[in-house]
Amino acid sequence: MHSLWNDQEAEACAGDDLALRVYTSRLLGSDEYLVMHGGGNTSVKAVVRDFLGRDVEVLYVKGSGWDLETIEKPGFPALRLDETKRLADLKALSDEEMTRQLRSFMLDPSSPSPSVEAILHAIVPAKFVDHTHADAMVTLTNNPQGEAIMQEICSDCLILPYVMPGFILSKQVHEAIRDIDLDRYKGIILMHHGIFTWSDDARVAYENMIELVSRAEAYIAEHGQTNHPEAQHDVNLPDLARIRRAVSEARGSAQLAMLDRSASAQGYASRKDVAAIATRGPITPEHVIRAKRIPAIVARQPAGDVPEVAGFSRAYATYYEAHKTEGLQMLDPAPRMAVWKENGCIAFGSSVKECGIVTDITRHTRQAIQTGESLGGWQALSEQEIFDLEYWSLEQAKLGKRGAAKEHQGKIAVVTGACSGIGKAACEALARDGATVAGIDIDPGVVDALEGMTGIVCDVTDDNAVQAAVDQVVAAFGGLDIIVCNAGIFRSGERIEEQDDEAWNRMLTVNLTATQRFMKIAIPYLKLGVRPSIIVVGSRNYAAPGPGAAAYSVSKAGITQLARVAALELAPDGVRVNVVHPDAVFDTELWTDEALERSAKRYGMTVEEYKTKNLLKTEIRSADVGRLISVMAGDVFRATTGAQVPIDGGVDRVI
Ligand code: ZN
């Protein structure tokens, strides 16, 4: 670990305490071995002029919802320092009251809520205070000999036993530093938790942190083992999908299951002692909020409904019963992470972001645990202490603020023909409703066309390529719940007797056969999905064909019939299959301005009249079809299968 302090960058903050605070907070945040995902907090004390023109001493402390890596000035609410300090003199203070009082001390009530460690930051008599849960520190403080090791390498620090964060920790530190000369100390080590450093000089506070963590790293390098087993195993994707479904059932909502199959994850999952060492507890207690206390341990080849997940849930309920107190509500009993023997580590969550955080926590945890084992053992906090944090009212309050889940949150969808038109609109609607979406298209533009989604270049008539694309999605997100069969081509103006044979074959291959192949490849995964659904994009042409488009009409009639048979075949597995029949969707690539004008002229209409030549006299946009597809894939249609829904403004020949 090295100091990243840069004189020039620091110079740019000269004279601006808060700017300097932002600068060194970001230095801390940029190293994942110091700070991860909202972990750690920093502060600076300064004098500011309040609204009435009076000078007030304030504590700028990290606000909730901000990460040190990307924090900016608004991420530091300003609290009246004197009032904040005085809270530490109280004998007791409930979490709710602490939160309320801290908020009442804020100069700007619209600022984010201050860190739960605000009081601690206030009572340390130095301008800059830095706090992290550095990996090396928690690796050593979770050692059975942790305290002795700390006394050896950090004899110039105050070493305190673990207590709950928040007021209790502030009180502990308040009493510990009241009668001592803090200048004699370089930092405070909190066993099983982390480290504090401070100084009136931003650089010194930061570099003391680097120095103390470096000492821990040096101790580990000298006495322990930091290179851990690696392995390489093939993964059975349907097994992954079954694990995901079991966890989704336990959670009560669809979950992504993101498998880390890196050499280090598979090496860890291949250790003979993994079940024993992985289930002792987290490296720092706050990880329990995101990742729960321990992972589920799943066999290499899990049986049918993955009994390990049900076992985890039962054990969680027992843990809750053993430690609950009056007024608590049990959280869902589903695991947030699993060690899947030989295959790697799985993170579960409702979004890619949530899973990414769990994946990072899991990666750091397995490194710390294995290193800890080589240093004489891994001894995390007791169940009771972890439980107290997991059910801490302040943490429960944060979870409550998440808001209602979206319709497709945690679900995984694949859409073909996704680069433009109806396919792109379907992707956007599904993603807006919470799904994790991958779009397939032969057009390389698909990679950039889908913002925040996965674009895969793939020719739908190449079975191997489609299989690879679907496998890629399952490997990345853990399963498949929704497919939209949309890819298709259109050509008209050819009567049957003059039909070009090549064009006929091509139309049937792309529109009909490729749809059947896509279904064939996706169905085994859909059967393992969460409330799975297939949407087939048909056409008004099926019910109301026109002359000169035999190949197109036949192909759309074919996939409609295919969908009806699929509905019959897949109902026992709970997979719904429905067809949407759009017509006159003119904002697609098929319709250029010239083509529109030509067609309008043929009917003796203006373009506007032509676009709305339906019973409702309304224009149908791709986005309308996309929204309908998303609704049909969702709960409104949960009892509907084998249905055909037109979206055409009303066509008398169909009605
Ligand atoms: Zn902390």
Radius of gyration: 30 Å
The CATH topology of the largest domain is L-fuculose-1-phosphate Aldolase
Give, in spatial order, the strands making up the sheet with the most strands: 3-2-1-4-7-6-5
At the fourth level of CATH, the homologous superfamily of the largest domain is: Class II aldolase/adducin N-terminal domain
Hetero groups in this structure are: zinc ion
Q: Helix count?
A: 26
**Percent range for helical residues?**
40-55%
- First-last Cα distance: 72 Å
How many structurally independent domains? 3
Strand content: 5-15%
Sheet of most strands: 7 strands, mixed
Descriptive report:
With 655 residues, the chain is of the alpha/beta class. It folds into three domains: 7-223, L-fuculose-1-phosphate Aldolase (3-Layer(aba) Sandwich); 237-399, L-fuculose-1-phosphate Aldolase (3-Layer(aba) Sandwich), CATH 3.40.225.10; 412-585 and 620-647, NAD(P)-binding Rossmann-like Domain (Rossmann fold), CATH 3.40.50.720. It contains 26 helices and 18 strands. The strands form three sheets. The protein has a seven-stranded mixed β-sheet with strand order 3-2-1-4-7-6-5, with helices on both faces. The protein has a seven-stranded parallel β-sheet with strand order 14-13-12-15-16-17-18, with helices on both faces. Helix 18 (421-432) links the parallel strand 12 (412-416) and strand 13 (436-441). Helix 10 runs parallel beside helix 14, helix 20 (463-477) packs parallel to helix 21 and helix 21 packs parallel to helix 23 (550-570). The chain is elongated. The model has no long low-confidence stretch (mean pLDDT 94). The structure holds zinc ion.
